[in-house]
Specification:
The complex is a heterodimer of chains A (464) and B (187). Helices cover 15% and strands 48% of the residues of chain A. Chain A is an alpha+beta fold and 464 residues long. Chain A has a 21-stranded antiparallel beta sheet that branches. Chain B has three helices and twelve strands; from the N terminus they run αβββββαββββαβββ. In chain B, β7 and β8 form a beta hairpin. The chains are: A alpha+beta (464), B alpha+beta (187). Chain A: It comes from Seonamhaeicola maritimus.
């Protein structure tokens, strides 16, 4: 038990979730669950998503701080609240948003009419994803200045963030090999519209007592920001919404990726499934512009009476030289270097147990191929993020209320809280399917205190 | 029938949870109170010379003067957010001659905005005498500082025993500026 406790504690320290669709995962009545596991169970014969309304997903989160912490109307001075946040947050704390909007999607089963065991699904969606880590040392430097921080190195690697706006065109193949095993694969073409990346920052700034003067100010700067697509917005004055449409339709910087997944039915009641999503890359070669700030310099002040740099130099020339050194140090170089980004790879896995067979009204008995009404399970989710992978662990209960109405409740451990309750439902009326799901319900008595909120909804037309 | 009732109840619960999220009082206008007050310290001028530096080819050098152009106070951020400044000078003298340092604050066209000077006493026994001086800029002096585009430093040895190659002692001068900033939501 101790062994596991350690692991759970470790999880508790590093977990977090964004893009985690713990309610949608495994919810096979909703066609979009195939995007979470291309090898998941398929329930329908064919479907199409109502264009622009088939999947809308939004998630925002911050680890370590909530809107309420800062903006509560509680009479406490705003600046003292801000101060405690600046000092409490750690460099690994982050702010994240993730939004997805499906433009179109569809799918159909094929194979022999008595056993349609293969399924093709496809679609196009747009995704916005951003994560920014709290730049702790920068914040402290702005907050205090260097006066109280003599000898303290300010770590410039605390600046970390990525943001991207992409569209994804995908086609997936799912095959039920036999009653026990289903697998699936999805190919993706990414078109990156905007990408910003500042990850490889290094260096320090430190003020130390000096030999010649009161202080030596030691600058060691190695900062960079890579961008693609941004120049379209900032420089091209003739950029029109049409151009954006073009970029969504594979006109941006392109990339390739693949999703893999499987489901293994262990016995009638137990099954195991898993998926790896977004194993892929995007090559940024168009509309690129990167900014670099690099250099070392030690400033100790100037000696105007006996300038030692060169001979016959006036103090002004000597000072000009120092000024130029400073200007060089803080000059941002603009370069156009092509770069490749890896997509944030995601892992899903779950173990599930179904129970409670549906009773047949006619004979008050269970029929041969009756389905179970309840299911419980454990789901693991992990996503590779710039500083640390984020992990979330979910326990869920699923219930089939009656034909066409299913609900799922989840309890998730994540880096925002240990009390994340999520609820989702899928309703089918004739061919029309509607689903909605949201998490962090316990925080809904004060939404501003939620460190994370996530919502998904959509409409599909499903033919079973 | 029972099931349908159960179902309707459940749906209502879910909907009320989804759509009736409530809030406690928050006040986003508090952002207007945003204010941080960093204090930045920076080395300024320094000097560390033995007595014989003030003697060249049989002639005693008593006056040194040079100027440097200063752009920092033209910066809008500094103009808007600098609320107080102090210039702190730490000197140690072990020469048997006092000296005087004068700092003139000038515009590009040499209009005098501000001036101060201080004198460091001689050290007859060549022991190290410490003398510190602080000039504070607040109110009108701060405005003068912010109008400054050029600093003129003048170092004068005060009258006393003549300096030659073998005069003992040295002069050391260190200085720093302390800049008090106040950054509010007008940023």
């Amino acid at each position: 038990m101790k062994k596991y406790l350690g692991f759970i504690l470790y999880l508790a320290c590093v977990i977090g979730f964004s893009q985690n669709k713990q309610i949608l995962y495994g919810f096979s009545e909703i066609p979009q669950s195939l995007l979470q596991n291309p090898g998941g169970k398929v329930d329908n014969n064919w479907y199409f998503g109502i264009p622009l309304f088939s999947h809308i997903h939004a998630n925002a989160g911050a680890s370590g701080v909530s809107t309420y912490d800062l903006f509560a109307d509680d009479g406490v001075d705003f600046n003292s609240k801000l101060e405690s946040i600046v000092y409490d947050l750690k460099p690994n704390d982050f702010f994240t948003i993730n939004q997805q909007h499906e433009i179109f999607s569809g799918g159909f089963a094929y194979g022999p009419s008595y056993n349609k065991n293969e399924y093709i699904s496809f679609g196009l969606y747009q995704e916005l994803d951003a994560i920014v880590y709290f730049p702790k040392d920068y914040a402290v430097l702005v907050y205090e200045g260097n006066q109280n921080n003599i000898n303290r190195p300010f770590s410039l690697d605390h600046l970390n963030g990525v943001a991207e706006l992409i569209s994804v065109l995908h086609v997936g193949y799912n095959k039920k090999v036999n009653e026990r095993f289903t697998f699936g694969v999805r190919g993706k073409i990414y078109s990156s519209i905007i990408n910003l990346r500042s990850l490889n920052n290094n260096g320090t700034f430190i003020t130390k007592p000096g030999d010649n003067n009161v202080y030596d100010h030691i600058f060691d700067l190695d900062l960079s920001l890579e961008t693609s697509g941004l120049v379209n917005l900032t420089e091209k004055t003739d950029f029109e919404p049409n151009d954006l449409t073009k970029q969504i339709l594979l006109g941006g910087n392109l990339g390739l990726g693949v999703d893999l997944g499987f489901t293994h039915q262990i016995d009638k009641q137990w099954y195991l499934d898993g998926s790896l999503l977004d194993i892929g890359f995007i090559r940024h070669s168009k509309n690129i512009e990167s900014y670099e700030l690099k250099g070392d310099y030690i400033f100790e002040g100037i000696n105007p009476f006996f300038p030692e740099v060169g001979s016959g130099q006036t103090a002004d020339e000597y000072w000009t030289e120092i000024e130029e050194e400073f200007e060089d140090l803080f000059t941002i170089d603009t370069v156009k270097t092509k770069y490749t980004t890896l997509r944030p790879i995601k892992l899903n896995a779950s173990i599930n147990y179904a129970f409670g067979e549906k009773l047949d009204k006619e004979c008050d008995c269970t029929s041969e191929d009756s389905e179970y009404l309840n299911r419980v399970g454990l789901q693991l989710y992990a996503i590779k993020r710039p500083r640390l992978p984020q992990v979330a662990l979910t326990a869920y209960y699923y219930r089939r209320l009656f034909n066409g109405l299913n609900i799922k409740a989840t309890y998730t451990l994540d880096s925002y809280s240990f009390s994340n309750i999520g609820l989702g439902m899928s309703a089918q009326l004739g061919g029309l399917n509607f689903y909605i799901m949201a998490d962090n319900f316990l925080e809904y008595n004060n939404i501003y205190d939620a460190q994370s909120v996530s919502l998904q909804l959509g409409f599909n037309y499903i033919f079973n | 029938m029972k099931k349908k009732i159960l179902c309707v109840c459940l749906i209502s619960v879910i909907y009320s949870l989804v759509f009736s999220a409530c809030t406690k009082d928050v006040d986003f206008n508090q952002i207007n109170d945003f204010e941080v007050s960093p204090v930045v310290e920076s080395s300024l001028i320094f000097l560390n010379e033995p007595a014989n530096k003030f003697y060249n080819n049989g002639v005693e050098l008593t006056t040194f003067q040079d100027s440097v152009a200063i752009k920092i106070f033209k910066d809008k951020f500094i103009k808007d957010h600098l609320v107080k400044a102090e210039l702190v000078f730490e000197t140690s003298n072990s020469i048997d001659r006092g000296f005087n340092l004068r700092v003139d604050f000038l515009t590009d066209t040499n209009t005098l905005q501000h001036t101060f000077n201080f004198s460091v006493p001689a050290s007859p026994t060549n022991s190290v005498l410490i003398y510190n001086y602080t000039e504070v800029f607040e109110g009108n002096e701060l405005l003068s500082l912010l109008a400054t585009e050029k600093l003129l430093f003048t170092l004068n040895l005060q009258p006393g025993e003549a300096i030659n190659e073998s005069t003992l002692g040295s002069i050391q001068l260190k200085s720093k500026g302390i800049f008090y900033l106040n950054i509010d939501n007008t940023l």
